[in-house]
Hints:
By secondary structure, chain A is an alpha/beta fold.
Amino acid sequence: MRTLPECSVVIVGGGLASGLVARQLARQGVQTVVLERGGDNRDGAAGKIPTQRDELRWDTRLGLMQDAARETYTLRRSRDAAAQPMRRLSAFLPGTGVGGAGNHWGGQVWRWADYNMALRTRLETRYGRGAIPAEMPVQDWGVTYDELEPYHDLFERLFGVSGQAGNLRGQILAGGNPFEAPRRNPYPQAPLEATEAGLMFKETVEREFGYKPFPSPAANSSGPYVNPDGMHLGACQYCGHCDRFICEANAKGAPDVLLYPWLARQPGFELRTHSHVTGLDYDPVAKRVRGVKYLDLVTSEEVCQPGGAVVLAGFTLTNTRLLLGGGIGRPYDPVSGGGVVGKNFCYQANSGISMFFRDRWLNPFLAAGSTSTIIDEFNDDNFDHTGLGFFGGGYIGVGVTSGRPIAARRLPPRTPRWGSAWKQANADWYAHSCAIGVQGSCYPHRENYLDLDPDHTDAFGQPLLRLNFDWRDNEAKVSAYCTDRAHRIARAMGATQIGPVVSRASPFDTRYYQGSHVTGGTIMGADPATSVVSPRLQHWDAENLFVVGASVFAHNAGHNPTGPIGALALRLGDDLARYSSQPGRLS
Amino acid sequence: MRPQFLAFAMLAASPLPAQIAPTPEVAAGREAFKACLACHDSTQAQRTGPDLRNVVGRVSGQAPGFRFGRAMKKARLPWNEANLDRFLADPQAVVPGNLMPYPGLPDAAQRAHLIAYLKTLR
Ligand SMILES: Cc1cc2nc3c(=O)[nH]c(=O)nc-3n(C[C@H](O)[C@H](O)[C@H](O)COP(=O)(O)OP(=O)(O)OC[C@H]3O[C@@H](n4cnc5c(N)ncnc54)[C@H](O)[C@@H]3O)c2cc1C
C-alpha cells in the first residue's frame, strides 16, 4: 500500500454532503481531499440530449446508481431468518459518481418541523413519560432547529430553492406550509408552476377539509438563478426527466452544477474520482483515525491518504459499514439494546393510491422532480396522537413528476396485463391519471438495525452490510392512518376510478421502489452511551473522525431528508475549519 | 488576492470592455442574458452550450470546438438579427429538434435587447 502525504481534511464520498462540507472548508482555505468511487457524469451521455432522455438506460436500468454487482446489501426481516443479498437494488437507490444521489435526486428540500430534533422530549412532554413504547428508542439529536436555521437558509440559497414560505419569522403566511419551522428568509425563488393534478388536490382539500396545501419546496429552479458563489442555474423546462436523471438544462440544484465546478477552482481542493474507500486506519489507543484506505479503480493500486481530520460522507450505508468494518465504536446489540453503531436504522413508510379522471387532462409528461402539492396536517406530531396507538405521520400530496413511456403506465384495477385491451387502457388513461401519495415517517425500532453480513462479500471481498429491517407495528399504523386520509381526499377529488388502497405493512418487499431515504446507523446525540457521534458530528471514540449524512439522523420523519443533511453538512464544514486550526473535542 | 488577479476577475465577470458604457439596450440585454448563463458563458470556451462570442454574423452550428446536434448543424442558418429574433422567439419552430432546453422569449423588445447584447460579445 502506498501512503500519501497527509492533508488537512479527507472526505469519504463525493456527493451532496461532501460538497457542502468542502465548500465551507475551501472558503476558509483549509486543504481538502475528496475520495469518490465513481466518475464524473456531467459531461457524459447522462447530461446531454438526446441520451439524457433515455429512460431505459437511466431509470429502468439504473445507469447512475450503485452497481449491485459490485456492492449490494443483504436483508433479513427478523434475527432468526437467513439474510439474502439483494441482487438488484430496487427499494432504495444509492447514487454513485461526483455529486452522488444529489445529481439525480428529485429536489424536494424540506425543513423538518422544529420539534423533530428533540423528538423524545416532545413526545414525553405531550403524551407523558410512559407513552413511548420500550421497543422504540427515539431520542433527542442534541442539536436544535434554531442552531441549524442559518445553515438551512444558506443551503436554500446555494441550491436556489423555489417555494412558498409558510412561516416567516413566526408569521404564518397564506399559501405556504403552516407547520414549517420558522424561517428567517423567504425561499430564494418563487414556487414552481403547479400541475393540473396539484390544482385539483389544492382546491379539494381547501374546500372539503379546510387543510392548507402548499407547493413542495423544490431544488428545481423556477427561473434563472445566481447563487452566492456566482454559480448559475437555468430555468426548469418541466421535461419530466428529473428524478433519476441529470438535468441537461442545468436547472436542478445539484452538487455537480453548483458545488464541484466551483470547488475545482479553489486552491487546496482536490477531488479524486474512481477512488473506492475500503477502510479506515484506526488507532484505538490514540483514539484517532490515521488515514483513509482506498483502491484506485483505474490503477488497482491500494492507497492510504492520511488526514488531520477524516469525514465520512458516503451516504447512510457506507458510513455505517466503514465504522463497523473498522471496529470504531461499539456495534449495536439488539438483544441487550447496548452498543450504538448500526442502531436506529430507519426507512420511510410510503404509499400511494392511483386516481383516474376521465374528463381531466393531467399531462403527466410536463413535470419536474418536485412538482408536488402537499399538506402537512398529518405529518409527524402535527396532530394529536392521543389514543391512536402510534407515533409519527406523513405528508399527503399529489406529485406529478414524470410521464415517461416505460414506467408511466398507471392503469385502472382489472385492466388486462397485455393485449389490445391493455393498449387501449394505456391510451385512455395516460393523460388522465395520477396518484395521491403518503411519505410516512419511520421511527426507530429495537430490531431495525444494521450490521455486517457474516457470509456475503462485495466484489472486493469485504463483508456486505446487512439490513435487519421490517415494517413494525408503528409504521403499519402510521401508514394505515395516513393512507386512509389520502383515500378520503381521493374520493373527494371526484376520481372516476380509484386504484387499490394498500398501506405499508410487513413483510418489507425490496422489489418495489419506496424512496431512497434510509437513515440512521451512526446516530448523533448528546450521550455517548446512546449515540455514535456528538451533536457536532464528531465521533465519540475517534476525536478526528466526523460523520455526516442521514446516517446521523436518530429517526426518520415524514419528509425527505436532504434539507437537514444540507444544514448539518454546512455547519460541519464551519466546525471543521475551526477544528483544523484548533484540534480537540468540539463543543 | 493580488491586484492583477482582481482585475482579471472583474474582466471575466463582465465581457464588455470596461471603458465603454453600455447603452440602455445593451444593459437590458445583459439582464435578459441571465436566463442563458447557466449554459452559455461569454468568457470561457465551451460549457453546456456553445461560446457565444462572435455569434452574430456566424452560421448556426459553427462555434469552434463545440459539438452541435444534427439539427443545428444541418440548419446552416446565418445568425443575423432577423434570424436570431425568429429563433429566440421560438427555438423549436425555427430549428426543429435543436438541443437547447429553452422555450423562447416571447417579448419582442426583450429579444431586441438580447440581440443588442449578443452583438457586443466579441
Ligand atoms: C432517485 C432519487 C431521488 C431523490 N429525491 C430526493 C428529494 O426529492 N428530496 C430529498 O431530500 N432527497 C432526495 N433523495 C435523496 C438524496 O439524494 C440524498 O439524501 C442525498 O444525496 C444524500 O447526500 P449524501 O452526500 O449523504 O449522499 P450522496 O449524495 O449519495 O453522496 C454519497 C457519495 O459517496 C460515494 N461513496 C459511497 N461509498 C463510497 C466508498 N466506499 N468510497 C468512495 N465513495 C463512496 C457515492 O458514490 C456518492 O457519490 C433522492 C435520492 C434518489 C436516489
